[in-house]
Specification:
The chain is globular. Strands 2-10-9-8-5-3-4 form a seven-stranded mixed beta sheet. The chain has a three-stranded antiparallel beta sheet with strand order 13-14-16, with helices on one face. A two-stranded parallel ribbon has the order 1-15. The chain is α/β, with parallel strands linked by helices. The structure holds pyridoxal-5'-phosphate (PLP). The site of pyridoxal-5'-phosphate has 12 residues, from helix 3. Pyridoxal-5'-phosphate binds next to helix 3.
Length: 371
């Protein structure tokens, strides 16, 4: 029986090979006699799983040695509080700058305001097509504790194709990025980043694991109110084992990292292969939308997301019939976010090009029948 294609925005599809391997190892991991869920997080077996996952992620994303990788809990929204609790005290002003480009960055700014001054440095305009505010127009503070942006807005489908170079803007504060919905879909320019965080459930593994990749010098600045389990210094010192980490989610993420490392495309391997595939997948879908008079996407091509493609039908009453026929064709979870309506296809790493081809076929057939 063919599996349907799952376009969920998150928790999202995982590579079939990862699920199959996890199923095969469920009852007895590598002859240990127990499942990964039943192991001590401090035992040799789990430590080897965790260390391998960290090594593979470091290699995949070319994370420099000056950065620490932390496996945390609490999700992306947890980091909206945990980041300011750890970083906002760095500068005497207790001020951070925020670039607002959609729902997720707005949530980050509002939450940070509970711990310090959360200053809005730039805000996306209501124009169509949607464009990101140019970094040269950002109103940054003289010396903020950090500058925050969401590098891929999952709901609006807006992605930074390049991260800003804050130093070129005269700002030496660290850049913090919420990359929850496109981590491991493309390289990260670490020269420009101080901290990157991501919930795992979009592109990496199951919900429950949150990745934090943070430059060494940003550890050790937590506010006194910061819970010890959320103090980056404690997690870094104890290899993410300050308390029990989300062990099974780390294991699945580790299998996903190994899957990513194995991928090949046009002579490329690993992350480069995945990025090339993601570019091809997104192009296929945006080209279909742009060539059609029935479908519409409102984001300027300069900042369209490769991962999350929101689109609308010219006649909104056709949205439900479109979804019903899509489900029959084995194309799941294409409903748009409730805040914006319409449709949304999430094309995370685990979505094969065949899934996008099937979606485009469905879109053509639907248009032919409803033009
Ligand atoms: C999904 C998402 C979040 C929320 O993550 P939780 O794990 O639900 O807290 C935050 N930021 C972005 C960009 C997201 O896509």
């Amino acid at each position: 029986m063919a599996r349907p294609f799952n376009f969920s925005a998150g928790p999202a599809a995982l590579p079939l090979e990862v699920l199959e391997q996890a199923a095969a190892e469920m009852l007895d991991w590598h002859g240990s006699g127990v499942s990964v869920m039943e192991m001590s997080h401090r035992g040799r077996d789990f430590l080897s799983i965790c260390e391998q996952a960290e090594r593979d992620l470091r290699e995949l994303l070319a994370v420099p040695p000056s950065f620490r990788i932390l496996f945390m809990q609490g999700g992306g929204l947890g980091q909206n509080a945990i980041v300011p609790m750890n970083l906002i005290g760095r500068a005497a002003s207790h001020t951070a700058d925020f670039v607002l480009t959609g729902s997720w960055s707005i949530k980050s700014q509002v939450e940070a305001g509970r711990y310090g001054q959360a200053h809005i440095a730039a805000k996306i305009k209501g124009e169509r097509p949607v464009r990101l505010p140019s970094p040269s127009s950002w109103q940054l503070n003289a010396s903020p504790s950090y500058v925050h942006l969401c590098s891929n807005e999952t709901i609006a489908g807006i992605e930074f194709q390049d991260l800003p170079d804050l130093r070129a803007l005269g700002c030496d504060a660290p850049l913090v990025i919420d990359c929850s919905s496109h981590i491991a879909s493309r390289p990260i320019a670490w020269r420009r980043v101080g901290l990157a965080y991501a919930g795992a459930q979009k592109n990496i593994g199951p919900a429950g694991l949150t990745l934090v990749i943070v430059r060494d010098d940003l550890l050790g600045h937590a506010l006194p109110i910061c819970p010890s389990v959320f103090d980056y210094r404690n997690l870094a010192d104890q290899g993410s084992m300050f308390n029990t980490p989300p062990t099974y989610a780390i294991y699945i993420a580790g299998l996903t990292f190994q899957w990513l490392k194995r991928q090949t495309e046009d002579g490329l391997t690993g992350l480069a292969a995945i990025e090339a595939r993601n570019i091809a997948k997104a192009k296929l879908l945006y080209d279909c939308i742009d060539a059609s008079s029935l479908y519409r996407n409102d984001v300027d091509p300069s900042c369209r997301s490769r991962m999350n493609v929101p689109f609308f039908l010219a006649d909104e009453s056709l949205t439900e019939p479109f979804l019903a026929l899509a489900r029959e064709a084995g194309l799941l979870q294409l409903k748009g976010h409730k805040a914006v309506g319409g449709l949304r296809a999430s094309l995370y790493n685990a979505m094969p090009i065949e899934g996008v081809q099937a979606l485009v076929r469905h879109m053509h057939a639907f248009e032919a029948n409803h033009a």
